[in-house]
């Protein structure tokens, strides 16, 4: 009779070239970089673009996160509020039961139009 260990061996496979390509770092665009790109694409001053961007974020924060509204931008996506329910958990160090509070966050779902633009 074969042992349990010899029957459950799994072949180890080296990572393929495709999976190595997937691990290439993607460019991260920060707020400053976004402002420069928007300024290059428009004739607006950087401080005006910054004011619009900060106002946009404030509207998402107030309307979506605090009031629970849904913000839909055609051919871009939808910002929605996501609520998590309070739940029981355990302190990983002590194993003591604890209550984890519920929370609200903002989620973004890209529209079909966004995927269409990305895939072209």
Task: Output the keywords.
120 residues, alpha+beta, 3-stranded antiparallel beta sheet, 5 helices, 42% helix, elongated, disordered N terminus
Count of DSSP strands: 5
Strands of the widest sheet, in order across it, are 1-2-5
Topology order in helix (H) and strand (E) letters: HHHHEEEEEH
Strand residue content: 15-25%
Helix-and-strand structural type: alpha+beta
Roughly what percent helix? 40-55%
Q: Give the low-confidence spans.
A: 1-13
- Outline type: elongated
Distance between the first and last residues' Cα: 57 Å
Gyration radius (Cα, Å) is 24 Å
Largest β sheet strand count, sense and barrel closure: 3 strands, antiparallel
Total DSSP helices: 5
Question: How confident is the prediction overall: mean pLDDT?
Answer: 82
Molecular structure report:
The N terminus is likely disordered. α3 packs across α4. It contains five helices and five strands, in the order ααααβββββα. The radius of gyration is 24 Å and the shape is elongated. With about 120 residues, it is an alpha+beta fold.
């Amino acid at each position: 009779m074969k042992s349990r260990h010899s029957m459950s061996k799994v072949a180890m496979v080296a990572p393929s070239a495709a999976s190595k390509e997937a691990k290439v770092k993607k460019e991260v665009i920060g707020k400053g970089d976004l402002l420069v790109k928007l300024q290059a694409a428009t004739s607006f001053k950087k401080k005006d673009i910054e004011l619009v961007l900060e106002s946009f974020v404030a509207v998402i924060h107030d309307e979506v996160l605090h009031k629970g509204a849904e913000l839909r931008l055609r051919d871009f996506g939808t910002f929605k509020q996501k609520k998590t329910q309070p739940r029981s958990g355990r302190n990983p160090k002590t194993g003591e039961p604890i209550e984890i509070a519920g929370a609200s966050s903002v989620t973004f779902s890209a529209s079909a139009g966004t995927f269409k633009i990305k895939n072209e």
